[in-house]
Description:
Layout: E1 2-4, E2 19-21, H1 29-40, H2 42-49, H3 56-67, E3 76-79, H4 85-94, E4 103-107, E5 117-121, H5 129-136, E6 142-147, H6 157-178, E7 179-190, H7 196-205, E8 206-212, E9 223-231, H8 234-240
Parallel strand pairs: 3-4, 3-6, 4-5, 6-7
Antiparallel strand pairs: 1-2, 7-9, 8-9
Helix pairs in contact: 3-4
Amino acid sequence: MVDKALGTGGRKSDKDLKIRVKSAKGRKVSSTKWLERQLNDPYVARARAEGYRSRAAFKIREMDEKHKLFRKGMRIVDLGAAPGGWSQVAAKAIGSTSANPLIVGIDYLEMDPIPGVILLQKDFTEDDAPAMLIEAMGGKKVDLVMSDMAWPTTGHRPTDHLRIVQLIEIAADFAIDVLAPNGTFVAKVFQGGTEHELLHMLKRHFKTTVHAKPPSSRQDSAEAYLIAKGFKDKVEAEETED
Ligand SMILES: C[S@@+](CC[C@H](N)C(=O)[O-])C[C@H]1O[C@@H](n2cnc3c(N)ncnc32)[C@H](O)[C@@H]1O
């Protein structure tokens, strides 16, 4: 049940207009909180108004504004693409069209088609996933690998931590295999979650690595993004080896 809470005397302030959700029988407190947060989240409303499938669309838009990720005509792989907000933003930014799609997205969830994006429904951690992505890209090198993937959490922190690190490692290995010189890798990490070794490896392969927390990423979440730019060719990377 959804209530618009009114203050005393019938006067409405912004605070009063917050939508409160009464807990319903059978609904967990956490689900009620989630629903309340969704209903009061300005990015959820903006995403709907601007035709994006997810509020996540704003995260990549904000990162692009600050870190200049997109340029016309580039090729992109979107890992963990569903429901499709990042791909929608990217397709518009780079001018990808159904006649000449420049983006390949993958998710184990089914997705509605997005013009200019080739979608694969598949678990990215399966052995044949990288080859399928490369084939869908016509065997060509890629300019940006972006990953918003995260496993559903188990609630057991050490397990969740290991699982996310493993996912980022697989995404990073894939990026190193498929990126063209000067390419970019963007991946969801969790604050304090980018393992020292992984960061070290990325620093060897990319000219710059920074962590980003776009304004639309919820402040109370540990989510952050790693942006690695300027992919070095093999020789350059070997020269950086210490
Ligand atoms: C936060 S959502 C991505 C939102 C997306 N960037 C957008 O803008 O709509 C994370 C996605 O990663 C997907 N995912 C997680 N692990 C995956 C895996 N191993 N293979 C493929 N997709 C995966 C989930 O199914 C989920 O759809």
